[in-house]
Every structure is written in C-alpha cells, then in structure tokens.
Amino acid sequence: MEPVIAIALVLMGYALGSAKIINEGNEALVERLGRSHRKLSPGLNFIVPFVDQVVMEDTTREQLLDIKPQNVITKDNIYLEVDAVVYWRITNMQRSFYEIDDLQEGLNNLATTTLRQIIAQNTLDETNVSRMEMDQAILEKLNETTKEWGVQILRVDIQSINPPESVQKSMELQRAAEIESRAVIERAEGDRQASIKKAEGTMTSMQIISEAIRYNPESREILRYLVAQDYVEASQKLSASDNAKIIFMDPGKSNDIYDQVVAEEVARKDNANSNGNGNGIGSEN
Known about the structure:
Blueprint lengths: L1 H17 E4 L3 E7 L2 E6 L2 E4 L5 E8 L3 E11 L5 E12 L2 H6 L4 H18 L3 H6 L1 H16 L4 E12 L2 H51 L3 H21 L11 H34 L1
Antiparallel strand pairs: 1-4, 2-3, 2-5, 6-7, 7-8
Helix pairs in contact: 3-5, 6-8, 7-8
C-alpha cells in the first residue's frame, strides 16, 4: 500500500504543480527551458512542472498612468507647471515583456519627454486655447514608439497648465482690460444709436410743425405758447441749481425770435419743395 500512496501523492503534486488558473482580463507567458513557449488565456491551464515556468502575468485591461507635475518652458520662454494622465493597455503580452525591461518606467519617461516637447512647440496663449490639439499630438507621438512595445495609448488628458503667479496676475489684468474695453465700446455704440434716434425724432417733429404752420397760420400762436412753456420750465430747473446763473430774455423780443424761427423753417420747406418740383420737371423733359 505504501507504494500506491506514494504514487498517489506524486500524481497529486504533479497535478497541483501543473495547474495554473488565470483570472479573467489577464494573460500569462510561459517559458520552457528558458525560451518563450506559449501564452496562457483566462481559465484553467496546465504546464509541465520543472520544465515550464510562468514568467509573467499581467492585465490586458485599460490602465492609468499619472504623470506628475512637470516644469516646462513654452515657445515664448514662459515656465509652466503641467500634469497629465495617460490611458493605455497591453495589446501584445509577449512584446510588452521581451521588448522592454521595465514597461511602467518606460511609459512614464516617454510620456514625460513627449509632453515637454509638445508644450515647448507652443506659446503660452496657444497652450491655453489648443489643449485638445496638444492631447492628440502627444497621443500620436506616443503610439509611434509604444507600438513596438505591444502597448496602445488610448487617451491623453492634460489636466492642468499653471503659469507662475506673476504671469497669472498679468493675464487677469489683461482679461479685465479687455472686458472694460468691450463695455466702453458697447456704451459708445448705445449713445450713438440714441443720438441718431433723437435726431430722427427732432427732424420728424420739425417736419410736422412746418407742415402745420404752412397750411394753418393759426398754428404759429400754438408754437409760441409751447416754446414759451418750455422756456419757463427750463428757467425753473436752472434756478433750482445752487451755482446756476439765470439769464432773462426780453419779452418784447420773444415774438420776433419765434417769428424768425418759424419763417426760416417755412422757407426751408418751400425751398425743398421747389427743388423737388424742379427736378421732377427736368426729368420729364
């Protein structure tokens, strides 16, 4: 019975030594007598004890590489502190093991160097407005090298770009100046539009008044009354001011002034009509 027990123990040990369970999402590499032999897939696998050896087991799922903040100088000689995140995964387990000694360290150094190179090709303003373009440029540059390592770079995200404090203050002042400049332009445009509307309203009023005076001479008395009323109201407002000077107009001459204003407006209207009629006759000839 003892030989049977011994054989059973040997077989049990052999079975335990040859069975390898690979978790889902992982793969493993097996070397036989020091040479690459085969790849183990997820599930239960068997190898030859003492002859085969599992030299690597790693995940094929997406992984994250966090690039620590780096001091980078831009094209216009501004020092920035930049950090980024790189998402990657292994596409060829054998290459990732045999083509590079330390995959994680190699990816970190390559990503850091590429990040600095891309930032150095842009000015400070360009780095702030073209972050997506820089992400894509870094992604393409990394994949050119990592393809030989059996690695695919999926995404690159530049998380923060921090200029020095002095540069930040200058940028804030510049933005404030731009906002104020736009506000001044908008106010000036509003005043211009208001002046145009006011002038158009005044012209329309003068046209209505001139028409009324032209066809109804009694309207002159109404005009005198309205002007006198405005004159009284303006005098009252002026007298209310502490440092205002009040100038009184000779009442005896007010009618002459009103008549002159009315006569000039009527004459201007008559001239405009006569010119229009003259042009119309000329065009008919």
